[in-house]
Write a structure and sequence with these properties.
RNA-binding; 32% helix; alpha+beta; 5-stranded mixed β-barrel; 19 helices; Gyrase A, domain 2; 8-stranded mixed β-sheet
Length: 596
RNA sequence: GGGGCGGUAGCUCAAUUGGUUAGAGUACCGGCCUGUCGAGCCGGGUGUUGCGGGUUCGAGUCCCGUCCGCCUCGCCA
């Protein structure tokens, strides 16, 4: 093989006269006719124009040159020279070209299913990009993403290594867990009929590392959750996972704030500014989200008490059932938002569980449209509670607290988009703290952890954990940037009594807890330090820095919505003998599925 | 599990109310062209209209089923 002496992004004017060899892919070819062919040769580092010139290139090289097609792989030895014509300002190597002397065609390509060309690759159906990922990844844009991701992990390792964190690997084959997401399971051969689970996160192991005296742990690790994906969610994703001993909440928030602001700064030049801390309650009440986007205002006002006096049925019955009425003032919304748009908002509210989306406009000092005639009696009170001005639109979130808030919160996001309130170049983050410990699950008729079962309550809330768990505030915290949750963590429970109590509140019998988490409860009995930590969603960090809504863009080999890898055609069939060895028989009939 | 959108040439798309031989750009193939750079010009259609049924004189188009992809609700401690 003709060995390269430098990369396609390297040659400069200073190298003219030098004989070099480049290897790479033919990005484009421009055949000018007998005696002159240009190709752009591309590798990860850049592109160089190679010229096959009848006057300077040997006849044989000339002939091969004119037969080249896009994405053929070649090595070319030649002489660097300053271009005759105008330099190409789009290329770093645009002032020079390589005059081909010797060429080796390493591999020709069939007609390509997709072209690795940033000009129109974004138009190509994603199905094709995923099936031929090795071609898609050749695109400069995808190469930039791979590189940025690498820079982020590199920065992360250095940042935490500098601060005494140890990178420790935790197992992939672990025991199934009762709480949380659906586990991927793996059959055991030595104990046929028993199963491993793939980790949803290394949670318990990192806590045990704290008990083991590691003091500070970090890992960039795969997490696996067998749940339906979304645009920003994959079953298989990566976390920057951390845990620290002898810390309180503020210690974790401080060091993680430093990490977040410095990684944005260093890797992308983005200034996150300060990261304010707001309570979950304020976030829900004012923004209708536990991960509010604070790049724009549009806050809510609770008008439950204001509209109580009124007998409008929708409000009255919601309040009667213990619900609330939230109002969002949209300044100037009366004229800028069309009927079609507000109808769309109502659909959004309904999608998130609200009955509808009552609204009124304030025009010439009077309520018009929507529910104006039903709430005329409390007009003055509403105007003053919301500081309404002429031309404002008011949208109401009605229902049980979480439904009223989150449905209006989703509407808030769309309104901001429609009114152009979102500056896409701006990055604003905040910590959401003081989460509740539990939420009540109507279906299962029991408490479920708002964060996870190892989250400690705030020290001052210990009494409530026993007597009034629904009001108990946890030590949990989430870091949200531009309305996206990028990290979440908590101070953990480090004494077995509290841990048992939480399991009990979650409806986990002592026996069950012992079976599933016995080793953790044991560990807590043998000298567990107070500890806490956090996990950053690496994929979402990369998404935000690269400016994409699609998580598949930032994963080299992502899966589709049905968990398929289109390139390698996973999942695949297993060898029947292998299954027999594992004691597994498979029944995929409709009946069998229906029974599950 | 539910809702929505889509599947036509290698790729991106078009095809009137169900009506002649399913078209265009690009890629690809052939030819021309010595300074191009998303080269240009001339010529070439390379097709199981995702798959299986059905209705009809006639289906890319309508109906039923199914598969695949995307968005989404549930789900994601």
């Amino acid at each position: 093989m003709l060995k390269r002496t430098c990369n396609c992004g390297d040659p400069r004017k200073e190298n003219s006269g030098e004989t070099i060899t480049l290897s790479g892919w033919v990005n484009t070819y421009r055949d000018q006719g007998k005696g002159l062919v240009f190709i752009d040769l591309r590798d990860r580092y850049g592109m160089t124009q190679v010229v096959f010139d009848g006057e300077d290139s040997p006849q044989e090289t000339m002939e091969i040159g004119s037969s080249l097609r896009r994405e053929d792989v070649i090595s070319v030895e030649g002489v660097v020279r300053v271009r005759d014509g105008a330099p190409n300002k789009k290329l770093a190597t645009g002032e020079i070209e390589l005059v081909a002397k010797r060429i080796e065609v390493i591999n020709r390509t069939e007609t390509l299913p997709i072209l690795p060309d940033d000009h129109d690759a974004d138009q190509i159906g994603e199905e094709h990009r995923l099936r031929y990922r090795y071609i898609d990844l050749r695109r400069p844009k995808m190469q930039r993403i791979l590189k940025l991701r690498h820079q982020i992990t590199q920065f992360t390792r250095n940042f935490f290594a500098d601060r005494n964190f140890l990178e420790v690997e935790t197992p992939l084959l672990i025991s199934p867990t009762p709480e949380g997401a659906r586990d991927f399971i793996v059959p055991s051969r030595h104990q046929a009929g028993r199963w491993y689970a793939l980790p949803q996160s290394p949670q318990i192991f990192k806590q045990i590392l704290m008990v083991a005296g590691c003091d500070r742990y970090m890992q960039i690790c795969k997490c696996l959750r067998d749940e339906d994906p979304r645009a920003d969610r994959q079953a298989e994703f990566t976390q920057i996972d951390l845990e620290m001993s002898f810390v309180e909440r503020d210690d974790v928030l401080d060091i993680m704030s430093e990490f977040a602001t410095s990684i944005y700064k260093e890797v992308s030049g983005i200034d996150l500014g300060d990261l304010p801390r707001i309570s979950w309650s304020d976030a829900m009440n004012n923004y209708g989200s536990d991960r509010p986007d604070i790049r724009f205002d549009l806050q809510f006002t609770d008008v439950t008490d204001v509209v109580k006096a009124n007998d409008f049925k929708v409000f009255a019955s919601a309040i009667e059932q213990g619900g609330v009425v939230k109002a969002m003032r949209v300044p100037g919304g009366a004229s800028t938002l069309t009927r079609k748009m507000t109808d769309g908002y109502a659909e959004i509210a309904q999608t998130y569980g609200a009955g509808g989306l009552p609204s009124v406009k304030l025009v010439d000092g009077e309520f018009t449209t929507g529910i104006s005639k039903f709430i005329a009696s409390v007009k003055d009170e509403l105007v003053s509670a919301l500081s309404l001005e002429d031309g404002d639109l008011v949208l109401f979130g009605v229902g049980p607290f979480r439904v009223a808030c989150t449905s209006l919160g989703q509407v808030r996001l769309q309104v901001a988009k429609d009114m152009g309130l979102v500056n896409e170049d701006e990055y604003k983050g905040l910590w959401v703290i003081d989460f509740p410990m539990f939420d009540w699950d109507e279906e299962r008729e029991r408490f479920i952890s708002e964060h996870h079962p190892f989250t400690a309550p705030l020290e001052s809330e210990l009494d409530k954990l026993r007597d009034n768990p629904i009001d108990c505030i946890s030590s949990g915290y989430d870091l949200c940037i531009n309305g996206s949750e990028v990290a979440g963590g908590s101070i953990r429970i480090h004494n077995p009594e509290t841990q048992s109590l939480v399991f009990e509140k979650l409806g986990l019998s002592a026996e069950e807890a012992k079976t599933k988490f016995g080793f953790l409860l044991d560990a807590l009995q043998f000298g567990a330090p107070p500890h806490g930590g956090i996990a950053f969603g690496l994929d979402r960090l990369v998404m935000m820095m690269i400016g994409t809504d699609n998580i598949r863009d930032v994963i080299a080999f992502p899966k589709t919505q049905t968990g398929a890898d289109l390139m390698c055609e996973a999942p695949g069939d297993a060898d029947p003998e292998h299954l027999e060895e594992l004691g597994i028989t498979v029944d995929v009939s409709d009946d069998a599925t229906a029974q599950v």
